[in-house]
Amino acid sequence: MEEFDRLPEFGSPEQVLVGLLGRDIQLSRSPQMHEDEASAQGIPLVYKLFDFAALGMTEQDLPVFLETLQASGFSGINVTHPYKQAVIPLLDELSSGAERVGAVNTIAFRNGKRLGFNTDVTGFAESFRNGLPSAGVKVVFQAGAGGAGAATAYAMLEMGANTVILHDPQETRAEQLCEALRHAFGIERARVSGDIRADVSQADGIINATPVGMAGYPGTPIPVDLLRPDHWVSDIVYFPLETMLLQKASAIGCAVLDGGGMAVFQAAGAFEIFTGHKADGSRMRERFLAIR
């Protein structure tokens, strides 16, 4: 777990209140994963969903929303699409990992301050190493350059990818992430896609780091006719666990990696931040797979 020197020791609170903030997240498995792991460790934890789509709220509501959670005694909150970058100006401090990536997926409320962390990078890396251990990563094509996309791109480059090619409908966002990656890893390690067909054709594998494929965001992030059997395809979406992209990729023989592993391993990191107790990743994975 990334730590701040000033984080206090955890005692035995009567109840640990945490949750998940995002849009269209009604199918999230995070509540059961966190609550079941807490129960197994004897920790009285309650995990709430705050779906801004269902609540009729927007990004403009974030400042008051975080103030309300903090004043209500919450220990922290997970953050998902589309607010991983939008919350940053509302925080007091960032961990080194969150600052490097420029995205936050976990906020801890400590001593009157809001501390931002990113457990997505390590979560995706652990999932990739376990699920696609022999995958070639010379060239990786990635759809999505938002908060999750920053995490997966950093993870791939840290794991040895030569080049990550970025595509995002918001071209400015892809350019900004590309610039950050070049600054961190070198100018040859990242570029923005200029021709999706040509760029996918030269890639060893494809990452979907967009919400496309989630319930509420149907479809695929790239045309599926660009896939070849020798591609590997990884998706960060986990509800549904098998997205249309992964269905099509599997059908032609691609090695595939669903978003479940990243969801579990990032959750394990967040659990430790929220509670001060290390999570049992294997147990969380088993529980994740059992949830229907």
Can you tag this structure with a few keywords?
18% strand; 12 strands; 2 domains; alpha/beta; globular; six-stranded mixed sheet; Rossmann fold; 292 residues; disordered N terminus; 11 helices; six-stranded parallel sheet
Question: What would you say this structure looks like, in words?
Answer:
The chain has about 290 residues and is of the alpha/beta class. The protein has eleven helices and twelve strands. It has helices at about 30-40, 50-55, 60-70, 95-100, 120-130, 145-160, 170-185, 195-200, 245-250, 260-275, 280-290; strands at about 15-20, 45-50, 75-80, 95, 105-110, 115, 140-145, 165, 190, 205-210, 230-235, 255. The strands form two sheets. A six-stranded mixed β-sheet has the order 2-1-3-5-6-4. α6 links the parallel β7 (about 140-145) and β8 (about 165).
Shape: globular
Q: Provide the helix percentage.
A: 25-40%
Measured on Cα atoms, how large is the radius of gyration? 18 Å
CATH class (first level) name of the largest domain: Alpha Beta
Poorly predicted regions are 1-12
Number of strands: 12
Strand line-up across the major sheet = 2-1-3-5-6-4
CATH H level, superfamily name of the largest domain: NAD(P)-binding Rossmann-like Domain
Share of β-strand residues: 15-25%
Note the run of SSEs as H and E.
Answer: EHEHHEEHEEHEHEHEHEEHEHH
Estimate the mean pLDDT confidence: 94
CATH architecture of the largest domain: 3-Layer(aba) Sandwich
